[in-house]
Amino acid sequence: MAEKLMNTLSKELVDYLQGERIVSLASIDADNGSPNILCISWLLATDASTIRLAVDGRSQLLKNIEKDKRVTVNVLGAGSAYAIMGTASKYTDNLEGVALNMAGVEIKVEQVYDVMFYGGKLTTEPGFEKTYDKALAEKYDTEVYTALRR
Questions:
Q1: What is the domain count for the chain?
Q2: Which pLDDT belongs to residue 149?
Q3: For residue 123, what are the domain limits?
Q4: What span is annotated as the signal peptide, if there is one (predicted)?
Q5: Which domain CATH number covers 50?
Q6: Contacts for 127-135: CB closer than 8 Å, 24+ residues apart
Q7: What is the largest CA-CA distance in the chain?
């Protein structure tokens, strides 16, 4: 059973969500009303009430949140599994200073649940590897995180 923790992110979750984390983001598909899941790594908690993320300017997520702003971010980290529920909106069509066509999305946190099963503790966090040019990946990471912090 999920345990509601609070209406904002804990300091531990804010600290954890400072980039280079992989999370899943669920929205409601604008075309058919089914759940739509997207993996995101370019995200940043700007404070206890706000998460910003960068998505491709053609992402289905943008269409989804235009129709229904409700989203849930699933975080596997900081020792547990969390469902962060909130409302999302696009705050810019093009992230300033980013060479890629990336839109900025901001999520206003409304509820945070610990959704780890009873008696469980997360001991290993999900990892990922970028499969394209390392120098280019570093360039894009720098551009995106600079823009998200503005």
A1: 1
A2: 94
A3: 3-149
A4: none
A5: 2.30.110.10
A6: 127/22, 128/22, 128/41
A7: 45
